[in-house]
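Thread title: Can someone regenerate the structure for this chain?

I was given the following input by a collaborator and told the matching structure tokens would be attached. They weren't. Posting the sequence so someone can regenerate them.
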Amino acid sequence: MTQNADFPAELIQLVESHVREVSDFPAPGVLFRDITPLIADAHAFSSLIDSLADRYRGEVDAVAGLESRGFILGAPLATALGVGMLTVRKAGRLPGPVVGVDYNLEYGEARMELQPFTVQDGMRVLVIDDVLATGGTAGAAFDLIRQAGGVPHKLCVLLELEDLGGRANLGDAIPIDSVLRY
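Best answer:
Regenerated them for you:
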């Protein structure tokens, strides 16, 4: 694991101490990093949200949570920042009108959607999720925000799985903040 010097050491230690490693989940050979202990600990979760709010206060006009753990992080962060929360969802889960983007997964394709009327022209949007893996979902979210007239400002993730190449796949157009990198 590598740490991001851009975040306070206390936040890095907090997240690291509350991530549970689960071997062979969801499939044999996979090491799953579970943030459930972090969100289940009221003090730790509150400290996380407060720290993220301190970092992004005044920078953004909305927070976009990616289904589904991004919702858990995005809603309280948006509230702490005093901005709205946008939901970027899997296909067919939002009532229309929606804009959608198809993107590639390791084995197949997926689609993400956003209600465009929730985005104001020029709105600076912080995209948040628990993990950056290949970057497909985050890239789709950036495209959706742009289609709706917004401006993706940054991507914030708790964990980045560097071997899966998400940062390289997303390129340099949007800054990426990851608390922990594995």
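The chain is about 30% helix and 35% strand.
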